[in-house]
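Hey team,

Filing this mostly as a record. A colleague (T.K.) asked me to run one chain through the structure pipeline before their review meeting, and I want the input and output archived in the tracker in case anyone asks later how it was produced. No errors, nothing strange. Just documentation.

Input sequence:
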Amino acid sequence: MTDAASHGQLMDDVYRYQRLFYDITRKHYLLGRDHLIDAMDVRPGDRVLEVACGTGRNLAAIGRRYPGAGLCGLDISEQMLISARRKLDGRAWLAQGDACAFDPFEMFGTRRFDHIVFSYSLSMIPDWEGALAEALRHLAPGGTLHVVDFGDQAGLPAWFKRMLRAWLARFHVAPRDTLPDVLTDLAGDSRVARVEHLRRGYATYACVQRRG
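Output structure:
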């Protein structure tokens, strides 16, 4: 079994039943998702891709916030896509695939996206740097990459950080403390437009804009 297939099977096993109550429980600790959506500037006709779209919660919110956007979602877990298809009910193109290697034209009929979103997914992708590099490769000139995920918790008590990370590890989640630096290195000719540490570092939001 390939690494991608193995990870896909793991995610299916993790979310086979969790997907049924995922949105209800995650709203209490996946902080900053709506901050990311509000920070986007999506125009009618813009193509939006969420990598590791999960249940489709964010794509549905983006569709409400920015009517007329073309919504696409990619996830390695077929179990999560079952929930996403039900939630979005034909309002988005959805495909199963590996965040680190995918063909957007084959999956969605387009080679570039105006906006690409990672929301609390990099902390679960083993080759998360590879996933970011792949996303930047498919970003249109002038397009933006938006990321929100667990931060370094630098402004929070040490005991809270230890407990949070021990709990997250039970679900195969590992905060990427070097995310801002990695984004800067990967951006190349693009520019890191913004990095924000939310809730005393509980979460990190970052935006990269590709030069036009």
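Quick notes for T.K.: Residues 3-209 form a domain with the Rossmann fold fold (CATH 3.40.50.150). The chain has a mean pLDDT of 92.
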